[in-house]
Design goal:
Elements: E1 4-12, E2 16-24, E3 30-39, H1 42-55, E4 60-67, H2 74-82, E5 86-90, H3 92-101, H4 109-122, H5 133-163, H6 170-199, H7 202-211, H8 219-228, H9 238-244, E6 249-250, E7 253-254, E8 257-258, E9 262-263, H10 269-285, H11 287-299, H12 305-325, H13 331-334
Parallel strand pairs: 1-4, 4-5
Antiparallel strand pairs: 1-2, 2-3, 6-9, 7-8
Helix pairs in contact: 5-6, 5-8, 7-12, 8-10, 10-11, 10-12, 11-12
Length: 336
């Protein structure tokens, strides 16, 4: 006899999350057993498990399905995992295309929770695994590092503008210079902490060194990619990784309208941020990336940035493949 399947679809945001409870019986008939909104805090998590326990039966399998939405889903995922619940964290683009396949046109929290639950009913999923404590600590440091770098770049642009303005107050210039010096010191400190943590894990250090044999890639870039993808835990293909980073190509062409080919940018902005400078460097120092850059720009002579974006995408693909295979970079093999 087939077991009854219970799926709890969760559409989560910063303050609360909406839940849709669906049941699939032995005859493959699906029905909604309830829906409710809970606060995105510890009390809300406890109320969720109590609410679900009332609606489940001893002969059923229970699973909680949610989207990977920045960091808002993390507390709930960790809580459910600590309670030995079956947790499934799905990439947002998968849910998006699943909803399109069902011709879903209405978008509300309630509808989103229902389609996430339906995804859990129809699809085979791999259980979510939390990051190790050390890996999560590195990720938090990496995100702060990226934030500091962004603020330093902004401050340097402001200082440049001040230096070229008419009779700018010297005290204001000094404050801006001190601000930049602060960012530089913090960046150096965070980078040293990241290196210490990586070096303390011999296996992680070795696998990253295998990847940094690619010209243009350094430890900080690689560990940033790994942290933002949880070691590519949820990814099964190159296409998924590229889409998650927002480096997938989109093109609109309808009737007389002729659009431009460009990247979607609908993905993890931190990955694109950390890949830009390495790709720019690789277009001058990495022979294979230089060839790719030249080939792309010959087809698009007026848009030089396309060559850099192609380099970003290629570097991301190489990191993904080498990490998954646990192999060192071989320039002859990787570019066949």
């Amino acid at each position: 006899m087939k077991k009854i399947k219970f799926v709890i679809g969760i559409d989560i945001s910063m303050d609360d999350f909406h839940v849709c409870f669906k049941e699939k019986d032995a005859n493959d008939s699906v029905k909604v057993k309830g829906s409710k909104t809970f606060k995105n805090n510890y009390k809300g998590f406890q109320e969720l498990t109590e609410w679900v326990s009332i609606r489940t039966k001893s002969n059923g399998s229970e699973g909680y399905v949610m989207e990977a939405t920045g960091v808002y889903h993390e507390d709930l995922a960790y809580f459910l995992h600590s309670k030995s619940k079956n947790v499934y964290v799905i990439l947002a683009n998968k849910i998006k295309y699943f909803a399109k396949s069902h011709n879903l046109k209405t978008k509300t929290d309630k509808v989103d929770a229902a389609i996430i639950a339906q995804y859990g009913i129809e699809r085979t999923m791999d259980p979510w695994k939390p990051m190790s404590k050390d890996f999560k600590k590195i990720r938090d440091l990496v995100r702060e590092l990226l934030s500091m770098k962004k603020e330093k770049t902004r401050a340097m642009s402001q200082l440049h503008a001040m230096n070229h303005s008419h009779e700018k107050e010297q005290s204001i210039l000094n404050i801006k210079k001190e601000q930049i010096d602060f960012y530089k010191k913090q960046i150096d400190f965070i980078e040293s902490e990241i290196v210490k943590l990586v070096n303390s894990d011999i296996e992680l250090k070795t696998r990253i060194e295998n990847i940094t044999k690619i010209k243009g890639l350094k430890l900080i870039t690689v560990i940033t990619i790994l942290c933002e993808t949880n070691g590519f835990e949820l990814f099964k293909s190159i296409r998924q990784v590229v889409s998650y980073a927002g480096l997938d190509v989109t093109f609109k062409d309808s009737g007389k309208f002729k659009g431009q080919t460009k990247i979607s940018k609908k993905g993890n902005a931190r990955i694109r941020q950390c890949l830009f400078m390495p790709a720019l460097s690789a277009t001058n120092h990495n022979e294979k990336i230089m060839e790719l850059y030249k080939r792309i720009n010959e087809r698009n002579p007026t848009i030089k940035m396309k060559g850099v974006v192609a380099g970003m995408r290629k570097l991301l693909v190489l990191i993904f493949v080498l990490w998954k295979k646990n192999e060192a970079y071989d320039p002859q093999y990787a570019w066949k």
